[in-house]
Each structure stands twice: as C-alpha cells, then as structure tokens.
Write a structure and sequence with these properties.
The protein is of the alpha+beta class. It has one domain: HIT-like (HIT family, subunit A), CATH 3.30.428. It contains 2 helices and 5 strands. It starts with a helix and ends in an 8-residue tail after the last strand. It binds adenosine monophosphate (AMP) and zinc ion (ZN).
C-alpha cells in the first residue's frame, strides 16, 4: 500500500523511534511545532478516526495507554500536553493513516 506511515512502520522510510510494541509505533514528527512533538500510530492501516470499527476497540484503548507511557517517559505528565488527531479536509489531515500528535514541552495556546 502506498502509505507514508505504513512505510515508516516497515522501515522503508527512516524515522526517529520513541516507542514500539506489537500494535503501535511512535516517532518524532519531522516538522515539530513544539519542543516535544511525537506521532503515535497503530501498526494496522486505518485511514482516520472515521475508519475505526468496533473490532479496533482494544487497539485504540491500547494506543491511549501507550500515549500515557510516552508522556511519562518524555516528562510531559506533570506540566501537561496535548493529543491531537486531525481528521479529513476541515481537520487538515495530510497523512491518511490514523495518527495522534503528542505535543508538549511548552505552554500551548488554544487558537483555531
Ligand atoms: P496531519 O497533518 O495531522 O495528517 O499530520 C501529519 C504529520 O506527519 C505532520 O505533522 C508532518 O510533519 C508529519 N510527517 C510527514 N512526513 C513525516 C516523516 N517522514 N517523518 C515524520 N513525520 C512526518
Ligand atoms: Zn498506512
């Protein structure tokens, strides 16, 4: 499949790995918007939040526990951070493999 993040998972495109287990992969965003900007993706190709099905419930729960683990590892848990998943055109999603941005390391604003 011609998917950038599937290629990152299988190593065809290099990435800076932060965390990996059987179900999820996390790596540094190539164009960080804050001191910490990590992307976490399921290894299963799901195009966006709208492609999640009931059979993915455990996977999505697992991914959120991995976010928690990464937040602690990156020392984001005390000061806080943001988890973002852009979806579709208005959400300005550019890569159509489900991903969650983990952004932190500075005070974030809320300005859309
Ligand atoms: P989105 O715009 O929400 O779909 O997010 C896609 C993200 O992928 C952007 O923040 C990009 O900077 C990031 N990105 C694109 N190509 C790469 C890459 N090769 N390695 C790491 N991050 C990437
Ligand atoms: Zn993919």
């Amino acid at each position: 499949m011609d998917c950038l993040f599937c290629k990152i998972i299988n190593g065809d495109i290099p990435s800076k790995k932060v965390y990996e287990d059987d179900h999820v992969y996390a790596f540094h965003d190539i164009s960080p918007m804050a001191p910490v900007h990590i992307l976490i993706i399921p290894k299963k190709h799901i195009p966006s939040v709208m492609g999640i099905t009931a059979e993915d419930k455990d996977l999505i729960g697992h991914l959120h526990l991995a976010i928690q683990h990464i937040a602690k590892e990156m020392n984001l848990d005390e000061e806080g951070f943001r988890v973002i998943t852009n979806t579709g055109k208005n959400g300005q999603q550019t890569v159509f493999h489900l991903h969650y941005h983990i952004v932190g390391g500075r005070q974030l604003e809320w300005n859309m």
